[in-house]
């Protein structure tokens, strides 16, 4: 029996996970669920944002469903030494699972075009998959420090790290429009020069039928707003991907509707792309769509259950025609939207 570990986390995490777990139970009743701690709440209870019990459980399971971690700007968690902060728990989890490729699909659901900050005709064209490298670059490079009145971080990449994530992007492009845009800053950074070379070599050797473009990150930030329909698959390094994926994620109207999958060679990690939303936590109005759609990605990528994944995606689409949470201009609650999805499965 497949085993899924649920890490509800902090803020709205437990609220959106509750809805998503009900959906998972409904379409895959045979899946065993285990709940564990991660983030600020985990630190409060155990002294670690990524406790040993959580580490052992995720390493032994088939897939992990995560809510969100982190507190408000003024949370005492933000004054802890960096390795004890909630966000460090998430980074340690990603590293432990070895999930080097973060897939963030951005698409505007029919009927929601009006909520996009972009013109409706532009929003309608958007169907982009951002593949973000997740275990390298400034996030994990050990060459980092605050030394007196100076501080530095380093964006380092090896050829092997670039190659493995670029493969994920090219493989994904083969199932889509066969176009990859590799995003870098090769006009300034040596690390981008290496990145560009590795991606180009891989394309020439193994993916000749995929069209490859190289673009600068500053230009992509502009073009994702101006002409977002031009992109199919975007592949980029960790920090650029973090920023570009939040930028792209507002195109569908709310951060609350976007799912993600983080894949490596072991269990996959599935989470909505939004944060813990301290401003609305506990009010029961968070949009659970991103987490519910992350369950669909979990079923597809980790359990090989594409039919069930599609059932969820169709049900979400139908539910949003009738029930909307305040981030999408409605008055529905998390629970009501979750129930509307369940009713359409
Ligand atoms: N993967 C993660 O767990 C993750 C990701 C990003 C930020 N964070 C953490 O979350 C905390 C808050 O960060 P932030 O405020 O910058 O970003 P955020 O994504 O939590 O919130 C940004 C805005 O979007 C709204 N929003 C987010 N998700 C929503 C949802 N599902 N439904 C309705 N509205 C939603 C919030 O109410 C807020 O107004 C910080 O501690 C940050 O480090 C965690
Ligand atoms: C919370 C933070 C560590 C995380 C990141 O920067 O990767 C978040 O912004 C994300 O995009 O998942
Ligand atoms: Mg982010």
From TrEMBL:
One of its GO terms (biological process) is L-leucine biosynthetic process. Its main location: cytoplasm. It is found in: Cytoplasm. The record marks 139, 185 as: Important for catalysis. GO terms for molecular function: 3-isopropylmalate dehydrogenase activity; magnesium ion binding; NAD binding. Substrate binds at residues 94, 104, 132, 218. NAD(+) binds at residues 275-287. The keyword Lipid metabolism does not apply. Catalyzes the oxidation of 3-carboxy-2-hydroxy-4-methylpentanoate (3-isopropylmalate) to 3-carboxy-4-methyl-2-oxopentanoate. The product decarboxylates to 4-methyl-2 oxopentanoate. Homodimer. This is 3-isopropylmalate dehydrogenase. It comes from Deinococcus irradiatisoli.
């Amino acid at each position: 029996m497949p085993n899924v570990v649920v890490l509800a986390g902090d803020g709205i995490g437990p609220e959106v996970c509750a809805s998503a777990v009900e959906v998972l139970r409904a379409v895959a009743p045979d899946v065993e669920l285990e709940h564990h701690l991660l983030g600020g709440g985990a630190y409060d209870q155990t002294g670690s944002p990524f406790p040993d019990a959580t580490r052992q459980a995720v390493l032994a399971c088939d897939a992990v469903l995560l809510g969100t971690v982190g507190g408000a700007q003024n949370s005492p968690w933000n004054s802890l030494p960096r390795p004890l902060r909630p966000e460090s728990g998430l980074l340690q989890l990603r590293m432990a699972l070895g999930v080097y490729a973060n897939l963030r699909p951005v698409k505007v659901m029919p009927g929601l075009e009006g909520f996009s900050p972009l013109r409706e005709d532009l929003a309608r064209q958007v169907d982009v998959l951002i593949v973000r490298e997740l275990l390298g670059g400034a996030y994990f490079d050990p060459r980092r420090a605050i030394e007196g009145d100076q501080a530095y971080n380093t964006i380092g990449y090896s050829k092997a790290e670039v190659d493995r994530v670029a493969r994920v992007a090219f493989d994904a492009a083969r199932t889509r429009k066969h176009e990859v845009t590799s995003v870098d800053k090769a006009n300034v950074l040596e690390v981008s020069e290496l990145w560009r070379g590795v991606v180009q070599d891989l394309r020439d050797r193994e993916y000749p039928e995929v069209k490859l473009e190289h673009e600068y990150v500053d230009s992509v930030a502009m073009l994702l707003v101006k002409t977002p329909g031009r992109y199919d698959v975007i592949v980029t390094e960790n920090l650029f991907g973090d920023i570009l994926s939040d930028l792209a994620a507002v195109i569908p109207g709310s951060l609350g509707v976007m799912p993600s999958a983080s894949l490596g060679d072991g269990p996959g990690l599935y989470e909505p792309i939004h944060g813990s939303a301290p401003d609305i936590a506990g009010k029961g109005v968070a949009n659970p769509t991103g987490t519910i759609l992350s369950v669909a990605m979990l079923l597809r990528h980790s359990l090989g259950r594409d039919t069930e994944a599609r059932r969820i995606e169709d049900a979400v689409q139908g539910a949003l025609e009738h029930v909307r949470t305040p981030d999408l201009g409605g008055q529905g609650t998390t629970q009501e939207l979750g129930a509307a999805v369940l009713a359409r499965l």
